[in-house]
């Protein structure tokens, strides 16, 4: 069994020190050699060695040493070694150290006394401690506070032993006297902790007697006072009124730790709006005053809990919470925005959006390297605000459209998705959004953003001027045609003739060629002699973004361009009375589409056009050549109707999620009805009156029984032993992220006392047992709750197995009961979550989930399998 110790040092057991060498060093007169030898002995003991032959040597040569370091190591050694035999009795040789401990407790040096008293706090053997009690009590009145505070802890430890009340009958009275005269803050805290642990009534009496002086006490003592208040109010909720006054008085304490604990205690004890508002104010002050990011994250978690249970109060604190955006940490900003978005109301929406707009403008400075990610979070937050409250969309949409050309692609995608949703849900903004989009379209550099923006142009350009401007913008961004050219031995020729000649020679003689990047392309034999290789025409400086993206081989974007031009031409037929203008626009659109097909089928790009994009562009060409009413209706109406339906389904899904989160609970039929108006209000403060009202409301709505899902807990209990076994055991498995907690109930079904009962567990797979349960003694037909913690280090399925070992007085051999295996499946610690499409694709690209298989190896393997099946 692993034993607890205050010293944990890694030691390489591959090269252990020889016991004889340690013994020789301890027998010498060199204190430095003794120190090194003691360290080696302690590290060997911590790593499982026993070294019984060293004890007498240490008693003879180390005990008399006056060196402080040697004495400290000696106490650590005595703490680690086994002090009892197999029957649980103290070994006789342990008596040898009692006189040394008594001398140390009376030593003139304060350090020796203090560390010895601290060592006594870790002893559990009453036979060793009993002769030392008079010396311990003398140290309670020592002049040095270091000795007094450790003496108080030693008294508390002795009193908590099974025989402690017989060893120190009047310990609480002595400590209460010490507490009334003590001036040292740490010693005073230890004395109050002793009363709190061992004599709670005396601690409560002392607290209520000095209630006016509590704000003047030290930080350590105030923390113990708060812990006492929590414990008392949990057992007797009727007395919390007189303690809440103490908590509120401590909210102005100079210590931030005390203030934080006060706020948490106040929330746990009271539901009155005054108390909750005071706690929320305290959390907001800590959020702004503390510089540690971990503290800010913890405070934000507490505010998030308040938001769930007291949303009405937190709504008034929304601007205070928003101040946390001044932190440069992205996790803090993300958590702050998540809290704020759930506290938005029609009263505060304008202030919130104004603050978010200011933060978006700040991200343009470029001083911080993660401004792009922060801007993306702000855009998503503004998007959510605009969806909930459409009236604020007009104040933010034009500002956000300046970021369509953002270098952070994810941020630009969020902006264009936001614009697409706003232009549909806010028809009044359509004209201004289309005008702004056409003006800023040339700034867009991401293909996905261009695709979404082109869809918006194709669907929402309705008037004649908008359609014409849309076609002109696309033509300008595509630049001059064609997209590539071929030169005949240095002489310039007409572009159309060059394309025809290249196509003709390609048909006559083709052969595969390996390009510079290792890909295959079809090359004409005649072109080697008559023509130089075709080259891309990058266009002039005025050429826009669409051309540069197309020349990189993005033909999906080319298909989107073709569909957008088709929609614009079809709509132009409806709004343009002049047939000549319609025919001109149609011919220009056809020329652009044919040029994109020629570019995709040429050898100028490393990869040809994909089949889906090719079919889509060809469909657009056929549609412009021969248009029917049904096809026109599909292209101009059905696409937009599908998008409207998608938005409606999204809104419905979000509404259902909100309803699912809202837990509906009811009061039980036999619950007590407490009539607030018939109660006596004599001596009750306003805070207590508010608290009574809130408690009644909670009982009426069933909030007090919301967490009592005992039925679900019963369904997750695993039986570990049989009903006929002498020891029955069952476990409740709790899986939280990467921690597994086994709450094992062990029942002694025999008429005998089971001694040294131990739950021995082992794991298979990537599971690690954190701590091993200790030995217990079970009375006849009694039970014991044993907890075991297990860490999960991967997503593989693991198995927990083990047995229960115990001894009885009649049988000298140890009895073993084998337990059923507990299978931990990956689905037990993986919970479903929701993320946006952009976030999912980003994570997918980052982690590279696809299994990349070498095609040549796969072909060779298939050929080998085929030959084996055919017997060749």
TrEMBL record:
Annotated Coatomer beta subunit appendage platform domain residues: 813-856
Domain Coatomer beta subunit C-terminal: residue ranges: 669-807
Primary residence: cytoplasm
Family matches, as InterPro entries: ARM-like (IPR011989), ARM-type_fold (IPR016024), Clathrin/coatomer_adapt-like_N (IPR002553), Coatomer_bsu_C (IPR011710), COPB1 (IPR016460), COPB1_appendage_platform_dom (IPR029446)
Keyword Hydrolase: no
Gene3D superfamilies to which the protein is assigned, alphabetical: Leucine-rich Repeat Variant (1.25.10.10)
General function of this protein: The coatomer is a cytosolic protein complex that binds to dilysine motifs and reversibly associates with Golgi non-clathrin-coated vesicles, which further mediate biosynthetic protein transport from the ER, via the Golgi up to the trans Golgi network. Coatomer complex is required for budding from Golgi membranes, and is essential for the retrograde Golgi-to-ER transport of dilysine-tagged proteins.
Name listed for the protein in its UniProt record: Coatomer subunit beta
Organism for this UniProt entry: Vitis rotundifolia (Muscadine grape)
């Amino acid at each position: 069994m692993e034993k607890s110790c205050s010293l944990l040092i890694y030691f390489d057991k591959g090269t252990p020190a020889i016991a004889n060498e340690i013994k020789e060093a301890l027998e010498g007169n060199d204190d430095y050699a003794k120190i090194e030898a003691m360290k080696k002995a302690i590290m060997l003991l911590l790593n499982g060695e026993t070294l019984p032959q060293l004890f007498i040597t240490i008693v003879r040569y180390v005990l008399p040493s006056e060196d402080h370091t040697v004495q400290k190591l000696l106490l650590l050694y005595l703490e680690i070694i086994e002090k009892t035999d197999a029957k649980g009795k103290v070994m006789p040789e342990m008596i040898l150290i009692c006189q040394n401990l008594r001398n140390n407790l009376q030593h003139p040096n304060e350090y020796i006394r203090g560390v010895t008293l601290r060592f006594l706090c870790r002893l559990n053997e009453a036979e060793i401690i009993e002769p030392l009690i008079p010396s311990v009590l003398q140290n309670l009145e020592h002049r040095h506070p270091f000795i007094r505070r450790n003496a108080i802890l030693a008294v508390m430890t002795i009193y908590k032993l099974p025989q402690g009340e017989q060893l120190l009958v009047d310990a609480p009275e002595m400590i209460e006297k010490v507490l009334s005269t003590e001036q040292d803050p740490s010693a005073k805290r230890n004395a109050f902790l002793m009363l709190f642990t061992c004599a709670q009534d005396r601690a409560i009496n002392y607290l209520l007697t000095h209630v006016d002086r509590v704000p003047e006490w030290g930080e350590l003592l105030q923390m113990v006072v708060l812990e006492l208040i929590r414990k008392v109010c949990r057992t007797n909720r009727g007395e919390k009124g007189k303690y809440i006054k103490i908590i509120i008085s401590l909210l102005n304490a100079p210590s931030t730790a005390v203030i934080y604990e006060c706020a948490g205690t106040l929330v746990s004890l009271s539901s009155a709006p005054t108390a909750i508002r005071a706690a929320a104010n305290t959390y907001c002050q800590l959020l702004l005053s503390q510089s540690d990011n971990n503290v800010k994250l913890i405070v934000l978690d507490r505010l998030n809990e308040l938001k769930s249970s007291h949303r009405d109060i937190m709504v008034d604190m929304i601007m205070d919470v928003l101040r946390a955006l001044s932190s440069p940490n992205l996790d803090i900003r993300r958590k702050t925005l998540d809290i704020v978005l759930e506290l938005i109301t029609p009263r505060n929406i304008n202030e919130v959006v104004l603050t978010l707009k200011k933060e978006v403008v700040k991200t343009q400075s470029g001083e911080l390297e993660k401004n792009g990610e922060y801007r993306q979070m702000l855009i998503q937050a503004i998007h959510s605000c605009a969806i909930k409250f459409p009236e604020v969309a007009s104040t933010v949409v034009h500002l956000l459209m300046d970021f369509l050309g953002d270098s952070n692609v994810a941020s630009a995608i969020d902006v264009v998705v936001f614009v697409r949703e706003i232009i549909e849900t806010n028809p009044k903004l359509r004209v201004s959004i289309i005008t702004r989009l056409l003006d800023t379209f040339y700034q867009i550099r991401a293909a996905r953003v261009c695709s979404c923006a082109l869809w918006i142009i194709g669907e929402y350009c309705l008037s004649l001027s908008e359609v014409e401007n849309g076609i002109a913008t696309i033509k300008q961004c595509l630049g001059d045609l064609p997209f590539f050219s071929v030169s005949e031995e240095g002489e310039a020729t007409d572009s159309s003739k060059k394309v025809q000649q290249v196509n003709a020679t390609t048909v006559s003689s083709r052969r595969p060629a390996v390009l510079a990047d290792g890909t295959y392309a079809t090359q004409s034999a005649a072109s080697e002699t008559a023509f130089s290789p075709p080259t891309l025409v990058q266009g002039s400086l005025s050429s826009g973004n669409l051309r540069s993206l197309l020349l990189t081989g993005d033909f999906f974007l080319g298909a989107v361009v073709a569909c957008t031009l088709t929609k614009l031409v079809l709509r132009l037929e409806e709004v343009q009375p002049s047939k000549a203008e319609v025919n001109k626009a149609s011919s220009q659109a056809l020329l652009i589409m044919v040029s994109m097909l020629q570019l995709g089928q040429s050898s100028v790009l490393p990869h040809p056009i994909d089949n889906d994009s090719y079919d889509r562009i060809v469909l657009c060409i056929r549609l412009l050549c021969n248009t029917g009413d049904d096809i026109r209706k599909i292209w101009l109406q059905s696409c937009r109707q599908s998008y409207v339906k998608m938005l409606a389904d999204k809104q419905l899904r979000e509404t259902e999620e909100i309803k699912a989160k809202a837990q509906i609970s009811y009061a039980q039929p036999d619950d007590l009805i407490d009539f607030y108006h018939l109660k006596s209000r004599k001596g009750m403060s306003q805070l207590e009156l508010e608290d009574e009202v809130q408690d009644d409301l909670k009982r009426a709505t069933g909030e007090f029984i919301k967490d009592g899902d005992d039925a679900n807990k019963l369904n997750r209990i695993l039986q570990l032993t049989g009903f006929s076994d002498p020891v029955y055991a069952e476990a409740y498995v709790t899986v939280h992220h990467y921690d597994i907690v086994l709450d094992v109930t062990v029942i002694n079904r025999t008429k005998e006392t089971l001694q040294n009962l131990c739950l021995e567990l082992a794991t298979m797979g990537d599971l690690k047992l954190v701590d091993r349960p200790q030995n217990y003694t079970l009375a006849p037909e009694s039970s014991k709750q044993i907890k075991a913690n297990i860490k999960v280090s991967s997503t593989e399925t693991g198995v927990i197995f083990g047995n229960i070992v115990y001894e009885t007085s009649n049988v000298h051999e140890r009895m073993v009961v084998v337990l059923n295996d507990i299978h931990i499946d990956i689905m037990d610690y993986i919970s479903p979550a929701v993320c946006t499409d952009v976030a999912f694709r980003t994570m997918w690209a980052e982690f590279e989930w696809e299994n990349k298989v070498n095609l040549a190896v796969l072909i060779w393997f298939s050929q080998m399998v085929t030959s084996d099946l055919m017997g060749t």
